[in-house]
Design brief:
The complex is a heterotetramer of chains A (99), B (315), C (206) and D (537). By secondary structure, chain A is mostly helical. Chain A has 4 helices and no strands. Chains in contact: A-C, A-D, B-D, C-D. The structure holds heme-A (HEA) (2 copies), dinuclear copper ion and copper (II) ion (CU).
Chain lengths: 99, 315, 206, 537
């Protein structure tokens, strides 16, 4: 089943224009996160900065890394791995938060 | 379990042992049951007796059954263990406090009135809270008869354990976290006394300031060294332990390494004082740096004078 | 050797190498993940010290490097597109831009670390031991380890891209056999994603 | 492909490629040869590790010094632990049997990345030599225990760095193997071999590979930090610099707990192959076993804290970890139930691999059930870091993974070497070994309940009796092991020729000659709709 599929699989060709748009978005997000964190937000600084980072990496993953055009099982794997990591941090903090 | 005479040695024994027995009971039930079933099948459906297998691919009902039953049982076992453990983390307010210092490789205990010992003396039927201080690496204070254990973590605040001894007697106290060379020798004893005997012992200044103390600093020196644990690493009979033996140390010619260079010194008051307050400044040749820690703040100048007097006697 | 010829036959399976690369990226993520766990625990335990220490870092250099990496990420992604369009020249050009941006990133890092060193800040330095609180020591320890490890990954990424460029030039990597370049790109984006998190954690949250 | 039939006649053992002799092996990218390379290297390391274990037991025969001093003893259990864990049971079944069988079971000619596969083996060897160099050069053999707990691991004056780097390299090898297997399973299944038709051994390899891939880097970075801490004095875990030693334990066990499932899952997989073959019956609850495999792999990731109940975690964490530890026992229970049900109404052919398989189930149950005692908070506080834990993990690691390894060895031996072993001697060996095993490790449960801490060079008189029994047990076990190994080594060269399918198995490896031809299949097999790995008629 694989042998037949693998050689004549055509890749989706992403146009340059899309990459440029994504880059602009990333730059805007970068500068807004710098802006946001320079205001005194107290506790929310960390959350704010992280939120921007998450959006940015989402863009990189989906467009630069082509996840958008990949087979579902690869998307699933990526989502799974990030979930595992988040769960690990949360569990670790079950210790530190309540100590 | 541990041994029947000391069954009720502390307030936790009963609960822990009950959890133990129930979990073991369930385990044995499954172990024996499943083993018997397995052997019966192996016998009954042997090729000779049953030449033709019957194909069965599975059964959803059975799968559900043997998921749910163990699930319920595990929840029960979990609950038991948790319920019996819970009180261990909540010391009563009126508990007597003792500070425990753990270092490579001995324990020392300091009471509220400043008294220090190398054996843990405790009153019967009174809750005690042990505040655990690790000086160098991880240790773990373990009293099997009391069913308690807690790691001693260097730098950790609020590191404690508590229990209430309920039976007079002498019990073993081990270090249960691997801590290096003499880990297996890092043990001592807990002596549980009648309340009044304990109070007498605790306030018995005669033992501290016994006649010997005033007249002979030697005995005091020895006692201090005993209770703070120098003999874990230093012998007095010439045998080499982790550190150099104290036999004949006074006035001896010693080769030491200072900042990477060897030099000769004579063991005198100043050298001993430096060895205790700043052990890594001059490292006795042939021994490892970094093992002995500074006792600054734990031993006063007077203490050290007494120690020196004692060392002088070790010919 | 006639016989060994057939065992060397490389069947080309682009999807296999892509999945392989993704799996490798997962291990890299978890490698940094371990460090992120440490960072968050220590930040939680020493909020004030981390706050203080982060002020020492130069947001400008950090932001500059972020921009460089983002652009380079775009150029390497474009390189794949041009390879698929059979445009070798553009492919090489875009990859070269990526490499140059990566190198500039490293040069910036070099100067940034150099400034820290000249302030007496390096792992185990006497200045740190004497004047800093424990939280600050932890912060800088992590700073050096995490940005150092990230720089190491930049270097690895650059090497992979360079190899891919050589193969593109030779013609063994082309529109129908683009896996190597795509994987080089994937790896480079990973380096980018990690930086996207390092930057706010060390430079922004002060 | 263009392989001619005659050419493929040559089996992989005889095949002459570009290189001759030893080079033809250590430079071969053939998955079967790499599997055997692992077998030989692991067997060698096992002998070393086992002899160290034997030496420890000898030391513990009587209180006080018996044959070695305390420093040597501490170094011995450290090296014993590192060898056994990182070099034997973690690579064990996946690297030996996974390499050998996975492609064949999938109907493929090789793994997805054959060169990477060879690289993994080379890294394994490099790691082994790095660790061993710690023994030979430098200021003394590492003495921290295989857990390398901070802060002792950067206080000790011994030669820790090579050992830590060695473990790191071994981890890297393990990651690459896992990666390779994952891609192979995803991409190289033969036509018709759907996910729901994969042999269970392949499924367990799949679960294991995910853990190898995701967990190993965490311990990798942790070990690197220990090294940096020792070399540069970067403060990370050192309490004197504000570090938290307990965080080290978290990171260590985030890997090392899932690692115990790396050890046991393929072992369970092998048992899931052996039981149906010898009962000539479809495995009971195929899908349930797959589900439990994946559940163990996933939930097993979340329970690391049960090694740290006494370390000083928060109460919330204690509660959570204990609860999940109990939950993770359930999928293991499901497997045991399904294995035993497979026997029901089978037609059981009692042979050596089958003996190993049922004794596996027995000792695995004991090991696993003692894990429940450890998972429960109150009782763990009591027996943590005592001989009870040592008994638990020898029962489950050695009794589980070890027994399964021997079961697999006797099951696939005719396929691998194309020869059959002496069955009578194999059975005798098993019996002696089994008795020795019980005598060696059972007393440790008792000693632990009496309160004897682990990693104790010396002990009080009251623990003497149990230790004597245990030491005797170790001697019985050596005897058994020597019988087994001698029998296998002899038969690999001189045993009678084996048939293609001596046990009447149904998985694909039994459809190729013994030993398998160079490229496994002349033609890639196609699995029919009503066919499957356990479809006995
Ligand atoms: C192959 C490796 C392996 C496996 C599979 C396991 C499996 C389990 N382990 Fe074990 N463990 C180790 C290897 C392993 N362990 C090692 C090496 C250590 C020591 C590390 C060190 O400190 O050096 C250790 C230590 C260890 C500890 C820490 C002890 C301590 O230091 O205080 C704990 C605590 O919870 C634990 C629990 C468990 C549990 C609950 C399981 C479960 O997965 C077991 C599940 C199995 C069963 C339950 C049996 C089968 C089921 C039935 C017969 C049906 C009936 C069942 C029910 C009703 C539930 N293990
Ligand atoms: C796979 C895992 C594995 C295996 C198989 C074993 C096998 C054995 N272990 Fe293991 N052990 C561990 C993993 C393992 N161990 C780990 C992880 C630790 C913890 C370390 C730590 O605390 O850090 C430990 C700790 C440990 C201790 C505790 C140390 C302490 O806490 O004080 C002891 C004590 O007796 C011990 C003994 C043994 C013995 C006697 C064997 C025996 O079963 C060995 C059997 C083998 C023989 C009896 C020899 C037979 C072989 C030959 C004679 C060679 C012939 C060869 C050829 C012809 C090829 N081990
Ligand atoms: Cu102190 Cu072990
Ligand atoms: Cu575990």
């Amino acid at each position: 089943m694989n042998l037949s599929v693998m050689s004549n699989e055509k890749h989706h060709i992403v146009p340059y224009r899309l990459y440029i748009i994504i880059l602009l978005a990333l730059l805007v997000l970068t500068f807004s996160s710098i802006g946001i964190t320079s205001i005194e937000l107290g506790k929310f600084t960390v959350a704010g900065a992280l939120l921007f980072a998450v959006i940015k990496s989402y863009l990189v993953l989906v467009y630069f890394m082509h996840l958008k055009y990949d087979k579902p099982y690869i998307k699933l794997m990526v989502a799974f791995v990030f979930a595992v990591f988040v769960v690990t941090i949360v569990i670790t903090f079950l210790d530190y938060l309540y100590r | 379990m541990y041994s029947s005479e000391v069954t009720q040695a502390s307030n936790f024994v009963q609960g822990v042992d009950r959890a133990f027995l129930i979990i073991m009971g369930i385990s044995f039930l499954f172990l024996i049951g499943l083993t018997v079933v397995m052997l019966v099948f192996v016998y009954k459906y042997n090729k000779k007796r049953n030449p033709k297998p019957t194909q069965i691919e599975g059964s959803v009902k059975l799968e559900l059954l043997w998921t749910i039953v163990p699930f319920v049982l595990t929840l029960l076992m979990f609950y038991l263990g948790w319920a019996e453990w819970k009180p261990m983390s909540k010391p009563p307010k009126d508990a007597m406090e003792v500070t425990v210092y753990g270092r490579m490789w001995n324990f020392s205990f300091e009471y509220e009135n400043g008294r220090r010992t190398d054996t843990l003396y405790l009153p019967k039927d009174k809750p005690v809270k042990l505040n655990l201080v690790a000086m160098d690496v991880l240790h773990s204070l373990y009293i099997p008869a009391f069913r308690v254990k807690q790691d001693m973590v260097p730098g950790k605040k609020d590191n404690f354990m508590w229990f209430e001894p309920q039976k007079e007697g002498e019990y073993e106290l081990f270090c249960a976290e691997y801590c290096g060379l003499q880990h297996s020798y890092m043990y001592t004893f807990v002596k549980v006394l009648e309340d009044s005997t304990f109070t007498n012992w605790l306030t018995d200044t005669t033992m501290v300031a016994s006649a010997a103390d005033v007249e002979s600093p030697t005995a005091t020196g020895r006692r201090i060294m005993q209770s703070i644990g120098c003999f874990a690493c230093h012998s007095i009979d010439g045998s080499k332990l982790v550190g150099p033996s104290f036999k004949g140390i006074w006035g001896e010619e010693q080769t030491v390494v200072t900042g990477g260079e060897k030099r000769q010194i004579t063991v005198d008051e100043e050298y001993i004082r430096r060895s205790i307050y700043d052990p890594n400044a001059d490292v006795a040749d042939g021994f490892n740096k970094g093992l002995m820690l500074s006792y600054e703040g734990q031993l006063s100048d007077d203490d050290i004078n007494n120690i020196i007097e004692y060392l002088k006697t070790l010919k | 050797m006639e016989k060994s010829a057939h065992i060397e036959h490389e069947h080309y399976d682009a999807e296999a190498s892509k999945v392989g690369m993704w799996l490798f990226i997962f291990t890299e993520l978890l490698l940094f993940g371990g460090l992120f766990i440490i960072y968050s625990v220590y930040r939680f335990m020493n909020p004030d010290a981390f706050h203080l220490a982060a002020e020492e870092l130069d947001t400008f250099i950090g932001a500059l490097n972020t921009v460089l990496l983002l652009i380079s990420s775009m150029t390497i992604a474009m390189a794949t597109t041009s390879l698929q369009k059979n445009n070798k020249l553009h492919t090489l050009l875009l990859s070269t831009v990526t490499v140059i941006l990566g190198l500039v990133f490293l040069v910036n890092k070099y100067f940034e670390w150099g400034i820290k060193f000249s302030h007496g800040i390096w792992p185990g330095s006497p200045h740190m031991m004497e004047t800093m609180s424990q939280g600050e020591i932890l912060f800088f320890g992590l700073y050096f380890i995490m940005t150092g490890l990230h720089a190491l990954h930049i270097i690895i990424g650059l090497v992979i891209i360079a190899v891919a460029m050589v193969r593109v030039n030779k013609g063994t990597v082309h529109a129908n056999r683009a896996a190597l370049l795509e994987n080089a790109g994937l790896y480079w984006h990973l380096v980018d994603v990690i930086w996207i998190f390092l930057f706010p954690l060390f430079y922004l949250i002060t | 492909m263009h392989t001619s039939h005659a050419e493929n006649e040559a089996n992989y053992l005889k095949y002459k490629g570009k290189y001759k002799g030893l080079l033809g092996w250590i430079l071969s990218t053939d998955h079967k040869r790499i599997g055997l390379l692992y077998l030989y290297s692991i067997a060698t390391m096992f002998s070393v590790g086992a002899l160290l274990g034997l030496a420890m037991k000898f030391e513990l025969l009587a209180p006080g010094k018996t044959i070695m001093d305390a420093q040597t003893y501490n170094a011995t259990f450290t090296v014993h632990g590192v060898i056994m864990i990182f070099m034997i049971v973690i690579p064990g079944l996946p690297a030996v049997f996974g390499n050998f069988l996975l492609p064949i079971m999938l109907g493929a000619k090789d793994v997805a990345f054959p060169k990477l596969n060879l690289l993994s083996w080379w890294l394994y060897v490099a790691g082994v030599f790095l660790v061993l160099s710690a023994l030979l050069f430098g200021p003394g053999t590492p003495d921290t225990g295989w857990t390398f707990y901070a802060p002792y691991s950067f206080k000790t004056g011994t030669n820790l760095l090579p050992a830590v780097f060695g473990a790191f390299v071994l981890g890297f090898s393990s990651i690459l193997t896992g990666l390779n297997f994952l891609v192979t399973i995803h991409r190289l299944r033969c036509p018709g071999l759907k996910w729901t038709k994969l042999p269970l051994f392949v499924w367990t390899i799949y679960g294991t590979a995910w853990i190898q891939l995701l967990a190993t880097p965490v311990v990798g970075i942790t070990l690197v930090l220990i090294a940096l801490e020792r070399i540069f004095g970067v403060g990370v875990f050192d309490p004197a610099l504000g570090g938290d030693p307990i965080l080290y334990q978290h990171l260590f066990w985030i890997y090392s707990h899932p690692a115990v499932y790396i050890m046991i899952l393929p072992a369970m997989g092998a048992i899931s192959e052996i039981i149906p073959t010898f009962s000539q019956k479809h495995i009971f609850g195929y899908k349930a076993i797959i589900a439990s495999t994946m559940a163990i792999a996933f939930v097993g990731w979340l329970v690391w804290g049960h090694h740290m109940y006494t370390a000083g975690m928060s109460g919330t964490a204690q509660y959570y970890f204990s609860l999940l530890t109990f939950i993770v026992a359930i999928p293991s229970a499901i497997k045991v139930f399904n294995w035993i049900s497979t026997l029901y109404k089978g037609s059981i052919n009692v042979q050596t691999p089958f003996y190993w398989a049922i004794s596996f189930i027995f000792v695995f149950m004991i090991g696993g059930l003692s894990g429940l005692v450890l998972g429960s908070l109150a009782t763990n506080i009591y027996v943590h870091d005592t001989a009870f834990v040592v008994a638990h993990f020898h029962y489950i690691v050695f009794g589980g993974t070890g027994f399964s390894f021997f079961a697999a060895m006797h099951y696939w031996f005719p396929k691998i070497f194309g020869r059959m072993y002496d069955k009578a001697w194999a059975n005798i060996g098993w019996l002696v070994f089994f008795i020795g095993f019980l005598a060696l490790y059972s007393p440790m449960f008792y000693l632990g309940m009496m309160g004897m801490p682990r990693r104790y060079y010396d002990y009080l008189e009251e623990f003497h009796g149990g230790n004597i029994l245990s030491t005797f047990g170790s001697w019985i076990m050596v005897t058994g092991l020597i019988i087994i190994i001698t029998n296998l080594v002899r038969s690999a060269r001189r045993g009678p020729k084996a048939e293609m399918n001596p046990w009447h198995g149904k998985t694909l490896e039994w459809t190729v000659t013994s030993p398998p031809p160079l490229e496994n299949f002349d033609e890639i097999p196609v699995i029919a709709e009503d066919d499957g790995p356990y479809n006995y008629k």
